[in-house]
Design a protein that fits this description.
Elements lengths: L1 E8 L6 H12 L11 E7 L6 H12 L5 E7 L1
Antiparallel strand pairs: 1-2, 1-3
């Protein structure tokens, strides 16, 4: 069993890495990009019986900084 966790900065939180990517794309001639938000994907290999609630607890305690980041869990 696996879980995939998507972590992104919340709207309104400055994303300097995303802004750097947007600027670099513009410098490369990709002028149609108005904004970039950069996040991370964490894939977990889980023991049988691990629940989505368990993974959400992992996110709350370690995988996401819930003050500035939001997350979503996908059980796969």
């Amino acid at each position: 069993m696996k879980a995939r966790v998507h972590v992104m900065l919340k709207n309104g939180v400055l994303d300097p890495q995303g802004e750097a990517v947007r600027h670099a794309l513009g410098a490369m001639g990709f002028d149609g990009v108005k904004g970039v938000r950069q996040g991370k994907v964490i894939e977990l290999d889980l023991d049988a019986g691990t629940t989505e609630a368990d993974v959400e607890a992992m996110c709350e305690k370690l995988l996401a900084n819930t003050v500035i980041e939001s997350y979503s869990v996908e059980m796969i």
